[in-house]
Structures are given as C-alpha cells and as structure tokens.
Amino acid sequence: MTSKPRFRQINTPDVSDADIERINNSMKVPTLVHPAAEAVMTARQQPVEAPRQHAGTLPPTQSARAGVPHKLTVRIPQSLNDTLKRDALDHRTYVRTIILCALQFAGYSVHAGDVLAPEAAARLRLAILSRRKCVEPSSMLLGAPSPQQKLSIDVPPSLEEALKRDALKRDTNGKRISVRTIILLALRVFGYPIADADLAPGAGGNC
Questions:
Q1: Among the listed residues 203, 207, 206, the one whose alpha carbon sits nearest the alpha carbon of residue 77
Q2: 78 within 8 A of 148, measured Cβ to Cβ
Q3: Is residue 169 part of a domain?
Q4: Which of 2, 122, 185, 188 can pair with 194 through a Cys bridge, CB separation 3.0 to 4.6 Å?
Q5: Number of folded domains in the chain?
Q6: CB 194 within 8 A of CB 143
C-alpha cells in the first residue's frame, strides 16, 4: 500500500488584529459590514390585506330582489290556460311571464326582470289581437261559465299586496271583486278573449 503524503503544518503567523486592520487600510481592502437586525426588519414589507366584505352583503350586480315570491293560485278557464301555454311556447317564455305582462299593461308595478322586453311584449300582444279577430263576439256575452282549471304562479309580495288591496274594492254593482277577476280582466285588456260569465265572482269557486 502506498502511504499518504505527509503535509507540513504551516503555523499561523503571530499578527495582531490591529496590524491586520492597518494592512487592510493601507491596501484599501473593503470591509464586510453586517446590517443591523432592526434595519432588516423595517425593510420587510408587510403583506397588504384585501378589504374584507361584510357577511351577508352581496355585490350590486348580485343584489337579490326584496322579498320572497309568494305562490298565487287562481282558477281560470281551461281554454284560456291552453292558449297561454301555447303562446308561451310560441314566444319562448312562460305563462307566469305573460300574466305579469298583462298585469303590468293594466297598470301594476312589475319588476323589469319578471316581464318580457317592451319589443317582445308588443309582438306578443299583436299576435293575440290578430287572433282575436276570429273570435265570435256573441261568445263573449254573459252565459254559463266555461270549465275552470287551477293555475299557480309566483308573484312578488308587493304585487300580491296590490292585488289583494284592489280586491277589497267593489264594482259598479256594489259587489266585491276577487284577485282572480282582476287577473282575468288584465288578460282581457291585454287581448285575450274572456267571456263575461268567466269574470263572475262565482265562476272560479273559492280561488
């Protein structure tokens, strides 16, 4: 085996720190300066906290409409219900939307998001009026009520209150009207042919 080479130990020169500093200064050797711990801490940037949003609040674009919709159930002529469904299909909307359009046309305040756009509502009403020309006027006179069918729609609380408030009023004969009658009258004004007998308070039963 080969033996490891033996290195000669070099003794550290006996030089004082003052002599080393003097030599460094004469040779213009830069010195290493350690920054203070406080300077390091102050130089650090604190993370910026995002503004907190209060619980329960929604952005303006997601603000919900005030009030939970209430289910309103009325009885309407079966033929009218079929016509409403057919019109909703043809105009790519809902029966509820058509009824709310009719109530808005009659003067009730309805949120814009619950009804058709003005141009679409005008096209719907034009189609209804053009079809009404084929209805025999004599069929609109007072007679026996036609078969009735239940219809349930969701309405805003404010609209329901307005309908019930108007239902407390009386007609020209001194008889109280109903929410059902108001809705049918609104649909009639909107263009749907509804017989006088179907507007009678007793035609819809208890609804």
A1: 203
A2: yes
A3: yes
A4: 188
A5: 1
A6: no
Distance between CA 158 and CA 37 in Å, rounded?
Answer: 66
- Give the max Cα distance, the chain: 132
**40, part of any domain:** no
Question: Rounded distance, CA 204 to CA 169, Å?
Answer: 18
Sole residue written with tokens 């030089």: 15
The yes-or-no verdict on residue 129 having pLDDT over 60 is: yes
- Cα separation, 167 vs 151, whole angstroms: 18
CB 153 within 8 A of CB 72: yes
Cβ–Cβ under 8 Å, residues 80 and 192 = yes
Question: Range of 185's domain?
Answer: 76-134+145-204
Does residue 37 form part of some domain?
no
DSSP three-state, residue 72: strand
Q: Are strands 148-155 and 70-77 parallel, antiparallel or unpaired?
A: antiparallel
Token pair belonging to 78: 């079966």
Is residue 160 one of the residues assigned to a domain?
A: yes
Cα 195 to Cα 14, 126, 130, 181, 187: the distances in Å are: 123, 20, 18, 12, 12
